């Protein structure tokens, strides 16, 4: 059976149901374009594009469009304690729509505020979820699909395995994309056979020749086993998956003292998370782009266990295409 045509490919116009998940700070334009050019879907992470890769937003989109004329998508992080970010995100949506982006993946917040506007422009919205409670909110908001972030994922991991999460959400009537733990084509095939409309991968694409992180980061992913991945709340205030190393052990994985109290309090948790996030905006790029001698920790999911070499993004997508035929 051919697993290449799914609701995800229909919604996006791609030919291989594989998304290169948005990644702060790792989503550089060359990676995004290479994934799309090969038939998958490269995702723009606007904060990474502007603050890490130093493109003025529209110029960054033009650069990506100069490398591929295939569809690309864009990530919208919706929860912002600062008005300034909300205003900027609003402008980015307008510009992206003007420049032809039609697939948006919302995360961390309520998508209700953006769905209508994107639909009016002929776009599609998927929302990142980790459980049924958030999925129901997204359904109410009118999204077109869900990216189901499971407990193996890199970035902000969920708490449920890929198959139980599918069971939890499969009656909602929306296409579901499996995010987390995938590095091999046969794993994607198994997820699509289980009913998922595609897969989203982050860690596998960091270990690609187009992803311009420090070679030490590539090496750390290749050498790590799934059991090396630990969750730390010390980066953004919610659990983030990192490769456990000396720096992570020193930093610790749990907030303590005042930080812990603030994170547990519904009125103050937003501010504590913002503090962590602002701090991590400085530390994450340092670790990812300056290498082990500088510091520190590398983000990655349990899929590291199946990654043993750096490949080009095109080869990765092609391997998945072959495996899904
Ligand atoms: C380094 C890193 C940064 C990430 N940053 C974001 C982000 O900015 N926005 C987002 O929606 N997801 C983010 N993610 C999640 C990925 O888009 C994707 O869902 C996840 O990596 C899938 O799990 P995998 O790493 O096992 O493939 C990030 C993941 C990683 C590894």
Name the poorly predicted regions.
none
Going by CATH, the architecture of the largest domain would be Alpha-Beta Barrel
CATH superfamily grouping of the largest domain: Aldolase class I
Assign the CATH class of the largest domain.
Answer: Alpha Beta
What is the strand tally? 12
> What ions, cofactors and ligands are bound?
flavin mononucleotide
| Biggest sheet record | 8 strands, parallel, barrel
Computed over alpha carbons, the radius of gyration is 18 Å
What form results from the Cα inertia axes? globular
Our estimate of the beta-strand percent is 15-25%
CATH fold field value of the largest domain: TIM Barrel
Helix percentage? 40-55%
Question: What distance lies between the first and last C-alpha atoms, to the nearest angstrom?
Answer: 7 Å
The number of distinct helices, counting runs of at least 4 residues, comes to 15
Mean pLDDT: 92
Side by side, the strands of the main sheet go 1-2-3-4-5-6-8-9
Total domains: 2
What is the H-and-E element order?
A: HEHEHHEHEHEHEEHEHEHHEEHHHEH
| SSE class | alpha/beta
Question: What does this protein look like?
Answer:
The structure is a single chain. The chain has 325 residues and is an alpha/beta fold. The protein has two domains: 7-212 and 305-324, TIM Barrel (Alpha-Beta Barrel); 222-303, no CATH class. The chain has 15 helices and twelve strands. It has an eight-stranded parallel β-barrel with strand order 1-2-3-4-5-6-8-9, surrounded by seven helices. α2 runs parallel beside α15 (313-324) and α13 (257-264) crosses α14. The radius of gyration is 18 Å and the shape is globular. It starts with 6 loop residues before the first helix and ends with a helix. It binds flavin mononucleotide (FMN). The site of flavin mononucleotide (FMN) has 27 residues, from β9 and α10.
């Amino acid at each position: 059976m051919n697993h290449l045509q799914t609701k995800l490919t229909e919604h996006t116009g791609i030919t291989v149901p594989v998304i290169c998940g948005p990644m702060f700070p790792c989503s550089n334009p060359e990676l995004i374009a290479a994934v799309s050019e090969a038939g998958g879907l490269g995702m723009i992470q606007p904060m990474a594009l502007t603050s890490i890769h130093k493109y003025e937003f529209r110029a960054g989109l033009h650069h990506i469009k100069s490398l591929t004329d295939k569809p690309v998508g864009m990530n919208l992080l919706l929860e912002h304690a600062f008005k300034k970010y909300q205003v900027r995100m609003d402008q980015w949506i307008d510009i992206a729509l003007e420049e032809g982006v039609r697939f948006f993946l919302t995360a961390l917040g309520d998508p209700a505020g953006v769905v209508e506007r994107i639909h009016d422009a002929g776009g599609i919205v998927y929302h990142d979820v980790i459980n049924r409670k958030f999925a129901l909110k997204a359904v109410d908001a009118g999204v077109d699909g869900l990216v189901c972030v499971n407990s193996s994922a890199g970035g902000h991991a969920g708490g449920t395995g890929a198959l139980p999460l599918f069971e939890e959400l499969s009656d909602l009537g929306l296409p579901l994309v499996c995010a987390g733990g995938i590095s091999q084509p046969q794993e994607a095939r198994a997820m699509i056979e289980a009913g998922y409309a595609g897969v989203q991968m982050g860690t596998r694409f960091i270990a690609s020749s187009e992803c311009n992180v420090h070679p030490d980061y590539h090496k750390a992913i290749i050498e790590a086993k799934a059991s090396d991945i630990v969750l730390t709340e010390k980066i953004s205030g919610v659990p983030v998956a990192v490769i456990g190393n000396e720096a992570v052990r020193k930093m610790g994985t749990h907030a303590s003292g005042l930080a812990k109290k603030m994170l547990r309090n519904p009125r103050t948790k937003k501010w504590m998370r913002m503090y962590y996030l602002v701090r991590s905006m400085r530390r994450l790029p340092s670790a990812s782009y300056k290498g082990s001698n500088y510091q520190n920790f590398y983000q990655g999911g349990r899929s590291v266990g199946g990654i043993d070499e750096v490949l080009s993004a095109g080869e990765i997508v092609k391997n998945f295409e072959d495996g899904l035929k």
